Amino acid sequence: MKLVIVTAVEQYQKAVLKLFKKANIKNFSSSDIDGHKNGSSLLMTSNWFPAEK
Question: In this predicted model, which residue has the larger pLDDT, 51 or 6?
């Protein structure tokens, strides 16, 4: 058994399914993931020593 993780955008779902069929992959699972970017987290982690100003 091998574990393969494929990440792709929704527009390529049909192409990925064709690749799976060509590779004789019959069983797989998928999940929807929403990505978000939070700009404030970069500011919070920019100072490694919080006591310094």
Answer: 6
